[in-house]
Every structure is written in structure tokens, then in C-alpha cells.
Design goal:
The complex is a heterodimer of chains A (108) and B (120).
Chain A lengths: L4 E2 L2 E4 L5 E6 L9 E5 L6 E4 L13 E6 L2 E6 L8 E8 L6 E3 L3 E5 L1
Parallel strand pairs in A: 2-10
Antiparallel strand pairs in A: 1-3, 3-7, 4-5, 4-8, 6-7, 8-9, 8-10
Chain B lengths: L2 E5 L3 E2 L5 E8 L9 E7 L6 E7 L4 E3 L7 E6 L4 E6 L8 E8 L8 E2 L3 E5 L2
Classes of the chains: A mainly beta (108), B mainly beta (120).
């Protein structure tokens, strides 16, 4: 399968920890990338690889993976973390890229 | 830091071919990474990978678009381009170009996006 599945919406109380998940067969082979997208803006890569953060991404963002499931973890969610989050990976062939359907994160 | 900027027509007629260009600035396209891609996002919907091209010129396309898409790179102009033929209303979307110096598939740098509407 070349699909990645995400929950459509997740909410978290301010300052609490939230896990956003992504499921797909390709994740057994390739680590997920995670992107944050706010309205009217381009996505921003926040996690890639096993658990790497590009320069400038706060340490409260982390990633993990087990089997066919990848997770983005935000430890101590802030109001500015409210956004849509997308996972992606290469597909099982390695040649193509797939994106999950996205998760809308609400910070209460 | 690598800067990307998409350019092209904002309005395309049905059945026509869309041509978009992504210009790389603040660095040579050759040093911005060796993997470039196009991604689109229909209004109110999620991200869809269109295709990617390696520095070598090797291309990979979304199977659902493969018959209509072509991506090329012009290193002399610091640009890479997208052509999508036989446009329909379903192709109306924000189109993003992106690149990476990380592993292929992880899009590290993105352009701001350009809106394309398909309408007669």
C-alpha cells in the first residue's frame, strides 16, 4: 500500500503533550517526515528521519516510529502549535513520495 | 538559506497545459540539494506529491498523474519546471516547489506557493 493514514483532528490542552500518528506500510521501511502548515502558508518540515529536527525547530517537537506507525510528539504544546500537520514518506518502492491526509491540531 | 519562488499563470483553461517555474535564489541550484519536487494542495484539502527530479535528471512522478506530468531542471538558470497537460477543474490547487539537502522525500525548503485556477 502507498497510503498514509492520519486522524483528521486532535486537540490538546495548553502545555500538555500530544501525539499525532501516521500509519502506512511504507513506514516499515522509511522514516516519516512531519510538516506543520498554518493557514495561507507553505508547510514547514519539523521532523525527519529517525528523530531529527531541522535547524530552528523547537525541541518540544520529536518523532518516533514502530512498525507501520510513526508519531509526532509535541511536549508542552503552545498556542502557536495550532496548525495542520502532515506526515510523508517514500512509498514502498522507494521511488515515489506519499503524504498523509493531515491532522488538524487544536490547542485548547 | 535557500529561497524558492514559483511563477506561472494563475488561470488556465480546461484542456490546456500548465507550465510553472521554480527559481532558486540565495545559492546555486546545484548547491541547494540534489532533489527537487512539486507538491500541490487543492482548496481546503491535503498535500499531494506531483513528482520529483534528481540532480542527475532522473524523474519520478505520482502514478495518478504520470501520463500528464513532466518535470525538468535548467541548471544554467537556477530553475526547475513543471508541465501538467490536459488540465481540468480537479487540478485547481496551490502549487508548491520544494527542495532538500536531506534525504530524498523530506522537503526541507518550500516556495510560498502559487494558486492555479482551471476555468474557462
Amino acid at each position: 500500500s502507498s497510503e498514509l493514514t492520519q486522524d483528521p483532528a486532535v486537540s490538546v490542552a495548553l502545555g500538555q503533550t500530544v501525539r499525532i500518528t501516521c500509519q502506512g506500510d511504507s513506514l516499515k521501511t522509511y522514516h516519516a517526515g512531519w510538516y506543520q502548515q498554518k493557514p495561507g502558508q507553505a508547510p514547514i518540515l519539523v521532523i525527519y528521519g529517525e528523530n531529527d529536527r531541522p535547524s530552528g525547530i523547537p525541541v518540544r517537537f520529536s518523532g518516533s516510529g514502530l512498525g507501520n506507525t510513526a508519531s509526532l510528539i509535541i511536549t508542552g504544546a503552545q498556542a502557536e502549535d495550532e496548525a495542520d500537520y502532515y506526515c510523508n514518506s517514500r512509498d514502498s518502492s522507494g521511488d515515489h513520495v506519499v503524504f498523509g491526509g493531515g491532522t488538524k491540531l487544536t490547542v485548547l | 538559506q535557500v529561497q524558492l519562488q514559483e511563477s506561472g499563470p494563475g488561470l488556465v483553461k480546461p484542456s490546456e497545459t500548465l507550465s510553472l517555474t521554480c527559481t532558486v535564489s540565495d545559492g546555486s541550484i546545484s548547491s541547494s540539494g540534489d532533489y527537487w519536487g512539486w507538491i500541490r494542495q487543492p482548496p481546503g484539502k491535503g498535500l499531494e506529491w506531483i513528482g520529483s527530479i534528481y540532480y542527475s535528471g532522473r524523474t519520478f512522478y505520482n502514478p495518478s498523474l504520470k501520463s500528464r506530468v513532466s518535470i525538468s531542471v535548467d541548471k544554467s538558470k537556477n530553475q526547475f519546471s513543471l508541465r501538467l497537460s490536459a488540465m481540468t477543474a480537479a487540478d485547481t490547487a496551490e502549487y508548491f516547489c520544494a527542495t532538500t539537502s536531506l534525504a530524498p522525500g523530506y522537503f526541507q525548503y518550500w516556495g510560498p506557493g502559487t494558486q492555479v485556477i482551471v476555468s474557462s
